[in-house]
Amino acid sequence: MAKRTSICNVLLRHWKAIILLVTPVIFSPLPIHFSSTENSKIAACGYAVIIMAVYWASEALPLPVTGLLPIFLFPMLGIQSARDVSVNYAKDAIFLLIGSVMFAIAIERWNLHKRIALRVLLTVGVEPKRLMLGMMSATAFLSMWINNTATTAMMVPTVENITGGIPTDDESDPREKHTLMQKTDEKTGLLSAGASGRGAYRKPEDLVRIVEYDDAEDKTQDEPLFLNEESDGRSREQADRMAKGLLLCICYAANIGGIATLTGSSTNILAVEVIEALYPESKGIDFATWFFFGFPTMLLILIVAYIYLLWLFLDCSCLLGCRKRCREHWMRNQSSAAYLVVKKQYNELGPVSFAEKVVLFHFVLLVLLWFFRDMKFLHLENGQAAGWTYYFLRGYVTDASTVMMIIISLFFWPSRPPNFMCCRNREDTEASEPAPSILDWETVHQKMPWGLVFLIGGGYALADGIEVSGLSVLLSRLFKSASGFLPVTLVLIVTTLVAFVTELISNAPVAAIALPILANLAEGICIHPFHLLVPATIASAFAFMLPVASPPNAIVLQSDKIQLYDMVKSGFLLNIIGILVLNIAIGTYGFPLYGLDTLPPWAKAHRFCNNTLTTVATSTSALLNSTLVPDV
């Protein structure tokens, strides 16, 4: 018995090594059996896909390392040459990802993201429901442009300072603390968190006035507040629930915010590259066309999530604006303390620096250049470009070249105003040293997640291998049996599966494996490929239940105020909410935006299908009646 136990312990300790070695052996009969047939490439590609899927799911190897497997697997299995595979790791979308991450590093380096977040909180307000709204809106906005992990890591300390009790100032006058303690002892014998928080940043005379005001106010009440442990216990319970709500709303908003923009998530960029690789004749999806669908969808999900979290953690009374006296008193105190915390952190940033203004200018310029680059949403005669790329060769300038142009500017733009020749201050007798640039390579090298490049490149290589080997054709034929499903039902099934699988596996591997398969599924049942690819990509961001689903969840779970049960309980229903909103979005304004009511001529299945898709009316019944049946 002891030997069996020790063997099991050894196996459990080395389970990753076992999966790493056993997986290729178990599935080796697949390429061996078909090696002498015409389907040898298809079987070999299926073998490689299975190995990568198992490694990504189990993390037997680091995710970026698994992304490098096609470089030696595909050549050895006779699928593609190493030269053809390696091209996938230097595609246009890869440099779009690198450029967007570099710009995010510039924003973080000069604390522009922190200033924006704190300014939003001060503008929206710090009353509990306003505080949650400010936290979610600021986090979601920042996650549209910078890494959601960095956004969460910045916002969590602010929430913990607000909800974990306001720290007292060790350098304050001892008479200040004595005066405050004396006044509270005369009243209840307890020191409330709200009074403590306000007193930490005020003068002694202000403290006396505040406590005396509370005393006078309480004397007008029928019964005093916080007179016993029971009532104080209720206030602590409310504070704990509020802390949970604020922490969870940050990680949820960080995941939701990446939906809005093409650069908000690596899976969005992966989807666009898969579309361009599989359908080179299509117009693809650029920053503007993604934004016009992603931003309204993100906004809808964020609003519904905000209402849901208010209901879950602040009760219906707060949602409806009907507060009890005890809750109103607690909220007023906490809000005052919260305001002081946020205001203190904002003041510590000092005035807006020249470097922040430079980064903000480049940020606005970059977004405008992205929006008005090609303007594919405007259909002009003869296919003429409507944006500023009109002055360049058609199709030569991309989102990647745009962001790289801005990034290179940041590498030589000074972080201080020039102080030489005619720009020198009159008070300076000697010219100052050159100011450091907004970005430098050392900072980029330290903060750049280079592994993400290999991970996304592996996804491109996988999609390309599926296409070249002929596995895509086989999948399209197999998926024709799913033509009996209505597109509405199929999208609901796909988004549900992707959303819940993402809870167990990182979203990038899920998208890398699922998107090529879903493209072939769309071809097999003769519907527009975007009808499945776009909602599946967005659904991969619905990682709300488990800490392994996304880094923001793991960061928030490290707080002692959050338990795993809290995240699972609130995240499960939020997953359902996100899936329903996403399906409504793709079934309404997604149709005219992407032209989902017709099968485009660039789709490979166009020649096999009866292109009799009728224009979908605004009613749901018309949408259901527009289902295509393949003519085979």
List keywords for this structure.
31 helices; 66% helix; single chain; mainly alpha; membrane; globular; solute:sodium symporter activity; Solute carrier family 13 member 5-like isoform X1; C4-dicarboxylate transmembrane transporter activity; 632 residues
Overview of the structural elements:
Belongs to the SLC13A/DASS transporter (TC 2.A.47) family. NADC subfamily. It comes from Branchiostoma belcheri (Amphioxus). This protein is mainly alpha-helical and 632 residues long. It folds into 2 domains: 91-414, no CATH class; 470-632. The chain has helices spanning 2-13, 15-26, 29-33, 40-58, 63-66, 70-76, 82-86, 92-109, 112-124, 128-143, 148-163, 174-187, 193-199, 204-219, 229-257, 266-278, 287-313, 315-320, 325-348, 354-371, 399-412, 441-447, 450-469, 471-478, 487-501, 507-524, 530-539, 551-557, 564-587, 590-594, 620-625. The longest helix is centred in the middle third of the chain and has 29 residues, at 229-257. The protein starts with a helix and ends in a 7-residue tail after the last helix. The model is unreliable at 165-234, 321-326 and 611-632 (pLDDT under 50).
